[in-house]
Design brief:
disordered N terminus, 306 residues, 13 helices, 2 domains, single chain, Rossmann fold, alpha/beta
Length: 306
């Protein structure tokens, strides 16, 4: 690729269009705010002050933004008012510990299956249920049910297209989503050629999204190169990510993106991207043409540049 092509690609990635918000997103943000303040402090005056400020920000919502962009604004505001740098840390630790105990059994399921890649993809999507933005009061039974469903329900998407994309790619960038879920990602990463893979986590805490702390707990840093994206958005807003991350994104032949936040922020990007997610809301269900609860392996939605 020549300098002019590289410049064109850089511009394309740094001025990307994103999935816009819908009015359906508003009650979700309100619920997140209420759950956050109640889970973080018992001080009712602080709860009310923080929630009122978040509601004010929501009232000024710009529907042309992506949901992760609005989520970033709201959670920055909440962290500042509550005086908590990582208000979901205890939740993240709880699910890391829970899935760590189950990991040997999950790994055996993959290794003993007829098609380890298929099983690993299914379990990686099952892990996407660990999402405090969608459901804060998740319990162990919910996770167990998601695991069982993932092995029995249809997979919406083209696994063989994904398999060929993995085989063809020289550089693979894997975008993680949540803590706890990152152990399920490890199951899939185990089925990829390590030397091709770079894993990315969030640069700073936001909701229960995985950061470098969680990547180390899951043991990913001993398998593959792990970087952070330099951002505290609950998704991948390219213009908010670090220069190093954007370069890795441009250079990747294949991007594997986990979760709705990554879908909401990258689904309009012209790039070879496969999105792996559990469909959790009506907006995403309508956009994909799927049902809530479906396991989605969607992409690539566009052809890569060049």
């Amino acid at each position: 690729m020549g300098p002019s092509q590289m410049h064109a690609t850089r511009c394309a990635l740094e001025t990307v269009h994103v999935m816009r918000m819908y009015l359906d997103c508003v009650p979700c943000f309100v619920r997140q705010g209420l759950e956050l303040v109640r889970n973080t402090t018992d001080d009712e005056a602080l709860q009310e002050k923080t929630l009122r400020e978040m509601l004010l920000a929501i009232s000024r919502i710009d529907l042309s933004q992506s949901p992760p962009a609005m989520g970033q604004i709201l959670h920055r505001l909440a962290r500042s008012l509550l005086g908590e740098e990582d208000p979901y840390r205890l939740i993240k630790d709880r699910f890391n510990e829970l899935i760590l105990k189950s990991y040997p059994s999950l790994k055996s399921r993959v290794e003993d299956s007829r098609d380890p890649l298929d099983t690993a993809v299914r379990l990686a999507i099952a892990g996407n249920i660990i999402d405090s933005a969608a459901k804060s009061h998740l319990c162990e039974t919910d996770v167990e049910n998601a695991i069982q469903d993932s092995l029995e329900l249809p997979l919406r998407g083209d696994l063989e297209l994904f398999r060929r994309a993995v085989e063809k790619a020289g550089r693979i960038l894997y975008l993680c989503d949540n803590a706890g879920e990152i152990f399920f990602d490890k199951l899939l990463i185990d089925q990829l050629p390590y030397e091709k893979v770079t894993v990315s986590v969030r640069g700073f805490p936001v909701i229960n999204d995985a950061t470098m702390v969680d990547a180390k707990v899951a043991g990913l840093t001993t398998l593959v190169e792990v970087i952070d994206n330099g951002s505290d958005a609950p998704g991948t807003l390219l213009d908010d990510c670090s220069r190093d991350f954007r370069q890795r994104f441009r250079e990747a032949d294949l991007v594997i993106a986990k979760g709705q936040g990554n879908y909401e922020s990258l689904s309009e990007v012209t790039k070879e991207i496969f999105f792996l997610l559990n469909v959790k809301c009506t907006v995403i269900a309508r956009k994909l043409g799927y049902d809530i609860g479906d396991m989605a392996l969607c992409g690539p939605l566009h052809h890569s540049e060049g």
